[in-house]
Amino acid sequence: MAYAGTRVARVEDTRLLTGHGTFVDDIIRPGMLHACFVRSPFARARINGIDATAALRLPGVRAVFTAEDLNPDVKEAWHAVAGKDIADTPRPPLAEGEAKFVGDPVALVIAESRYIAEDAIELVDVDYDPLPAVADFTKAIGGSAAGVPVVHEAYPDNVAGGMGGAPPDEETFDSAAYVATANVYQQIYAPVPMETRGMVVEWQASSEELTVWASTQTPHELRAFAARLLGIPAQGVRVIMRDSGGGFGQKVVPMREDMCILLAARKVPAALKWIEDRRENLMSAGQARHVDGNTRMALDGDGTILAVDIDFTYDIGAYPTPYPVLTTAAVGMFFPGPYRVPKASFNYKTVFSNTAGLAAYRGPWQYETLAREVLLDIAARKMGLDPVDLRRKNLLRRDEMPYFNPNGMPYDHVAPVETFEQAVKILDHEGFRKEQAEALAEGRYIGLGFSAYIEPTGAATGHLATEGATIRMEPTGRINVYVNGGSTGNSIETTVVQLTADALGANIEDVSTIQGDTAVTPYGAGSQGSRSGPMTAGAVNEAGGILRKQLVAMAAARLEAAEDEIELGGSKAFVRDDASKSVTFADLAFRAYYEPAQLPPGMSATLEATARYTSPPTAMIHWANATHACTCEVDVETGHVTLKRYIVSEDVGPMINPNVVEGQVAGGTVQGIGGALLENMVYDDDGNPLSSTFVDYLLPTATEVPPIEFGHVEIPGPGVGGYKGVGEGGAIGATPAVINAINDALAPLGVTLTRLPATPAAIVELIEQASK
Domain Aldehyde oxidase/xanthine dehydrogenase a/b hammerhead spans what residues (predicted)? Predict the structure, then answer.
């Protein structure tokens, strides 16, 4: 039986739903101490001195560390995301000399309990000299030359860097029949995982071994980073990641607080635990999105796209996670999207501000889809076309592959027009337009929004290009598959079991997986970049092939048959033309482990295989694509938006487990809906965060999200099994689909919303402006 492609129940659900999961805060070690950060209340302030005398007098306080204590111990602090040789922005563990945003960690208190540590941070006296701050990144460019506060002295104009593609073809824009333009502003919103950041770190001085229990998406990279940071051999570091309550990109790379805990652990006599509270998470764990850009699209009289251009500014806060200049380039490179675009240009700047630093979040380049899809609807209205017709005319087809977008992105194994047409069919586009006209006649405003995108998954560059797996058959005949892990809701626990059962012909109940422990699992780059599906499939295929060959050889000897006559299935080996001649995996394993002398001379008794999968050049990128369709009703009196239907048609190749695929799409879609309507990390002019609790930072609930309808188009990718990644697409496509639906509903009133989020107040204000 083939398990891949079926809706196998998730193996982790029973553990999690019955409250038997193990999260970082469940870890207890002998004599464990607790850490709490003293954080700056100012967006920018000179730190003249720190007096910890009163805090150290509090019973139960064991230490207070400042930048002078921890920061000099840093040996290397680069991340494998781009390597050690690319210039990066500053990232000290504790603030040095100057606090640069509200929540900036300036000292670390160690105490016998979290309660004592919380009390003690109030007793640490920090002598601050408040300084002018710049919170609005759109006003930060120029720095001191423009009379604006400078965030980092090494960047006097507040620009970390930028990049430009080919210059705009102004002749095409000047001569085009139609040119649509839009300024699209996307607010800050954040990953907000259910489980905040946290780790327990235990240093054994006698053996010079470091053990880290962490909520992380990348256990092996955290291990390597910790070794580099402390200047100790990597084999002396063990990272254990059990269950994790979400990551969404925020837990890919160790952040400054993680660095502090790793450094402090060698200075205290017992294990050290830090668990971030929700206010800290919203205030300091990093911002996402926050882009302001001007976009243009040139079209001929028939609606054929001639050229696109985007010029944008990206807020990277005070201390962004690694290489913000490099990673932001994806917005410009992907801006042509899944369309037939002959000419494209982009230009951007990454800008520092006195706010929390930019961090990864599902589809970090998502702004390109938002800006382009909103612009497409504006163009359609300007031309008097239905947005469906405009997209249909310009979307790429299967027979056009391979296709290079004008920025050099090599699309292949996709057919964006097919997911689009499937979504249109599921929706019943013509039926909706009739319903819309009837509703308008009744004074009701309903709208339809589409969003189409193409995304790179499993992008195999650098350390992301390889993944390992170990498959071991135990003496009972049962099988364990060991992979790197980093499972943060993406259910690779279930999918590797399915893949391994198929690779060996085992019953699925005979297969288990061990993940997230660097002491026993092969190196892997973890859960990032929608890579887990295609890369672990490749690793399991490599290791499974080796072990399968050994099982066939053992069975052939036992059954006195030729190897090419042996089949594996149902956790046994049998002769293809005579199924009565069979031997169970349990029997083969028993002989290998307990009666190896019974094996033929020279035959290995090994029932274990470790292998690494490396993406070949033809499979460096697995392109996935989808179309989102959303309908909504807008109350023009209150500005309230009610989503009516939500459809996602996606192509992620063959699905290892449709339940997992749809769960990933649904989760990302809900986050995108939140980014369109609700979530907003607001700062005032002085850099004070105004939404650091769930009272003010609003998240989507079941009340705001309609049932999600799924459609699937299956175009195999270039890698093993044809699998593509699915982790980020929902979050990419949802926000523009919702915004386009709102704009479609309000089009009769002359309203176009391009500044997010689409709050009731913002909608009412636009309606009032349009009526003047």
Answer: 18-132
Render pLDDT for 429-453 as a digit per residue (tens, 0 to 9).
Answer: 999 999 999 999 999 999 999 999 9
pLDDT of residue 326: 87
Q: 443: Cβ–Cβ under 8 A, 6 or more apart, which residues?
A: none
Count of helices and strands (H, E) across the chain: 19, 28
Average pLDDT over residues 417-434: 98
Residues comprising the chain, all counted: 772
Contact 548, 568 (CB under 8 A): yes
- pLDDT, residue 289, reads 97
Determine the pLDDT at residue 618: 85
- Cα 164 to its chain centre, rounded Å, is 25
Burial group, residue 464, by CB count within 10 angstroms (0-12, 13-18, 19+): buried
Q: What is the per-residue burial (b if ≥16 Cβ within 10 Å, else e) of 48-75?
A: eebebeebeeeeebbbbbbbebbbebbe
- The mean predicted confidence, pLDDT, of the chain is 97
* Rounded-to-integer distance, Cα 318 and Cα 327, Å: 16
- Strand 608-614 to 410-411 pairing: unpaired
Spatial CB neighbours of 206, under 8 Å, sequence gap ≥ 6:
none
The residue-averaged pLDDT of 347-371 equals 97
Q: What is the pLDDT of residue 504?
A: 98
Is the preceding omega at residue 716 within 30 degrees of 0, hence cis?
Answer: no
The SS3 assignment for 452 reads: strand
Residue 509 has pLDDT above 90, yes or no: yes
Residue 327 has pLDDT above 90, yes or no: no
Residue among 704, 707, 634, 677 at smallest CA distance from 439: 634
Rounded to whole angstroms, the Cα distance separating 420 from 405 reads 19
Q: Cβ(215)–Cβ(251) under 8 Å?
A: yes
Domains and CATH numbers, the chain: 13-131+194-246+251-284 (3.90.1170.50), 366-457+621-771 (3.30.365.10), 462-617 (3.30.365.10)
Nearest to 648, CA basis, from 315, 346, 423, 341? 423
Single-letter code of the amino acid located at 476: T
Residue that the structure tokens 């080996």 belong to: 573
Q: Work out the percent of the chain whose per-residue pLDDT is above 70.
A: 100
Q: Look at residue 459 and tell me whether its pLDDT is greater than 90.
A: no
Q: Which two tokens stand for residue 357?
A: 């630093």
In this model, does residue 487 exceed pLDDT 80? no
Q: What is the secondary structure of 310-378 as a DSSP string?
A: EEEEEEEESSPSS-HHHHHHHHHHTTTTTB--SEEEEEEEEEE-SSPPB---SSTTTHHHHHHHHHHHH
Q: Confidence band (pLDDT; 50, 70, 90) for 5? A: very high
Q: What is the DSSP string of 248-314?
A: TTTTSS--HHHHHHHHHHTTSSS-EEEE--HHHHHHHS-B-EEEEEEEEEEE-TT--EEEEEEEEEE
